[in-house]
Amino acid sequence: MLSDFATGEFGKDYELEIVNGPLANLHSRAIVIIDENGNIVYNEQISEIVDEPNYEAALKAL
Fold first, then answer.
1. pLDDT per position as a tens digit, 44-58
2. Which of 36, 55, 56, 62 has the fewest CB atoms inside 10 Å of its own CB, making it the most exposed?
């Protein structure tokens, strides 16, 4: 688990940044699992920030 509050680079690199509205410059809620080779093995971006991602599916991808 990580946060990129300090720089925001992760959110920008993975296109998670909210660009307008009252939540501008924050990131959408998402799970991105990257393996030891740098490959994305699971990702889920939530359309509504108040909703939770599918944690069970993410854990199965580990």
1. 999 888 999 999 999
2. 36
